[in-house]
């Protein structure tokens, strides 16, 4: 029997992220100026740019860890400047973040780390929380033997997987990844790329992924946004970017390291 009183599901916005005219500054240093960026539902977006161009600052600003000095940010249909506490909680529930260093709690086990968002955001019984955490750990390809290890006992690749499992704990619609393959060997990085692509397809995730890894762009990204000159200078497919005339993009895709990835993908 269906529950007639069940609320209709929220109508999901098509745009998961909408940034307009963003101004980001630290003191008198301007990091972003007039930056626009959209991420559509279901899209896997790579975010690239030279070191220090403000990719992490952009991620932090979108998720609310940094206040913008100007412009507007809409996240999952909510205007960041005008968030009620219910809206903020809604955003937290519907987004997952894998920070660059994993940001795991060092004193907690793998299982406790992955369970922590469920403990914080749900009123589920403990046994259910740990069952769900075990599922997420399996989903990212870690064995049950890892459950009681502490972060210091894990390899870099395992720590990334635990961070990903924790980011997925609340079944987010939108996933933020800050250099997920940095520090992994090429085989580990390729396996991680595969994992993210499968998860995004199977779970219908939208993904905002900062990366320096050209192979990841070719392997998993629908579109790539390029940060340069304090803004997003292009958002396009990798194939379109290969034909760009922008000097940094040309060097990035067609320089000595770019050519190798292009050949591998061909
Ligand atoms: N809290 C802060 N206070 C002052 N300046 C900051 C702060 N956080 C970042 N910056 C500066 O903002 C600029 C952009 O930093 P960000 O970490 O976003 O770069 P990035 O593009 O992610 O670089 P990378 O590819 O090297 O990780 C840098 O010059 C950095 O020094």
UniProtKB/TrEMBL annotation:
The keyword ATP-binding applies. GO terms for molecular function: ATP binding. It holds the Pfam family ABC_tran. Residues 17-254 form the ABC transporter domain. Keywords: ATP-binding, Nucleotide-binding, Transport. SUPFAM superfamilies: P-loop containing nucleoside triphosphate hydrolases. It comes from the Bacteria. This is ABC transporter ATP-binding protein.
